Amino acid sequence: MVKNKANDPVQYTAKQIQVLEGLEAARKRPSMYIGSTGSRGLHHLVDEVVDNSIDEAMAGYCNKIKVILHTDNSVTVIDNGRGIPVDIHNITKLPAVTTVLTKLHAGGKFGSGSYQVSGGLHGVGVSVVNALSEWLEVTVSRDKKVYWQRFERGKPVSELEVIDKTTKTGTQITYRSDPEIFEDINVNVDIVAHRLKELAFLNAGVKIELIDEREPEKNTVFHYEGGIVEFVKYLNKNKDVLFSKPFYISGKKDDIEIEIAIQYNAGYLENVLSFANNIHTEEGGTHLAGFKTALTKTINDYLKNDSIPNAKRYSLKGLEQGLLGNDVREGLTAVISVKLLNPQFEGQTKTKLGNSEVRGIVSSILNEKLSGFFIENPDTIQKILDKSISALKAREAARRARELVRQKNGFSLGALPGKLADCSEKDPLHRELFLVEGDSAGGSAKQGRDRKFQAILPLRGKILNVEKARIHKVLTNNEIRAIITASGLQVGEDDELDLSQLRYHKIIIMTDADVDGEHIKTLLLTLFYRYMRKLVEEGKIFIARPPLYKLSYNQKNEYFYNEEELQKKIKDLKGNYNIQRYKGLGEMNPAQLWETTMNPETRVVKRVELEDALEADEMFTMLMGGKVEPRKEFIYQHSAEVLELDV
Prior knowledge:
- By secondary structure, the chain is an alpha+beta fold.
- It has 4 domains: 14-222, Heat Shock Protein 90 (2-Layer Sandwich), CATH 3.30.565.10; 228-399, Ribosomal Protein S5, domain 2 (2-Layer Sandwich), CATH 3.30.230; 428-546 and 590-641, 3-Layer(aba) Sandwich (Rossmann fold), CATH 3.40.50.670; 549-581.
- The strands form 5 sheets. Strands 1, 2, 3, 4, 5, 6, 7, 8 and 9 form a 9-stranded mixed beta sheet that branches.
- The chain starts with 23 loop residues before the first helix and ends in a 9-residue tail after the last helix.
């Protein structure tokens, strides 16, 4: 529960606001400050404003935040924190709130003592939001008064003025992103909701309300008293768990606070989310490394302890070297959240925590508290050990099977699959791979393709459902092995997927437009999401869209991708036409397949994008996982939306 610290001796006035530099460059080079002027940059502005309110919450002064998306795509963020200071700043000679909104890197987070910990990925602050907004209005409630000021494209167009009296405190910022800067200013409620849900999980007790005036049915409140414990429960809600209550630990050392929640499920995949100062560290970092090291060590230490109950049952051949990290993390769901004064972010997307001291602190705290938990809960650790040892056996069995294959066939599993029809182009940036359903369509695709830059890999039948299989079974499945080796990547060997080894710039899924085709497509997407997720995140996965109809008239052929387009065209024609409904890719000859589905000049392909990892995880678990009931409920809820059922 967040507690208000109104009597805290730390002061928050203009003296705590430090000015580092001006604001002029932000409008000239917006991408330097927010990453892009596309969707990501647009939503970065929302994050920056919300992060200011979350900083107040982390400091203990705010427990309610409201975000409103207006019909004109302006955004309002309201909190009940202390309110941005309004007294005169000693350097700028302007009110502190005006300074914060007009000076880059001006704020209470640069060593002034107002905030122990603060979020925000790049620290560009609300001044950049102001600079990149068509207009912005700020309302501050503090000192028993309500203050208001308006800005246009970063510049004040009014003085800070008192407009009312109040007994409350807080800040309200309303802004509209500048259409001169951004490609599209339409704020996506789902992207905003995902981030707000994440923040509510990470800041126990903070109530965050989202109101969308454009789509009121999407209004929601995020409020989790249990914090990351509820986060883990949410991630596991459609899974069979090994123990009902997640194990939670928290600790602090040298101004570094850590929180960890752990729960195992009966599945074979690990799902560990790490955060630093509320930022999702997608590339991991020292906190994640410390967690993994301590988890593996603690479980192995317990395994070697002769005094534990039923210790002899674990004296198994093959355990002399202990369990590996992949063994002990099978079926693990965990959330790691650290908060520290000066986070150092590294990596390609600046989402990898680099502070070296964090690793040891996370490792020591987790080791100490997890050891105690295991001693007090022998039934729980026995379930984890049984699962981990089962994973080790499966891994050893898979290794022996791969060695037998090598000895029998005399080739490396890294060799390209024989059924791959590769292309002649050497530069991966100009190569694309089609994963084609069936040998028949694969044959047509091989004949119709452009051999210079298009490679074809026919897939026989439906690949393994990786949601319900161990990674070792996944990696020895023939069709999946062919996909992995054709791509050039090493999957399952390391935690990181090295995209520099990728042999193709695009991987395009091409299946029939029927139920079986959709199923195969879903199985492939599950594979990419679970084991090659970086390909999805980097926009390397595409879905081909073959036409559903061929309309022949006046000695011409025209192709249509949905019935609505077809019917619209038919209205303009007389009874002298012919319609062919395509059920499968094999019904098209090579020339037609090239013309409609493979020719870059005329084809329609959809890039697979990952906007909400939490919802994607939930969807794959529900549709492809072992529990039947969530799947049934989903079908019942959405059955009325089905326009055409192919059975």
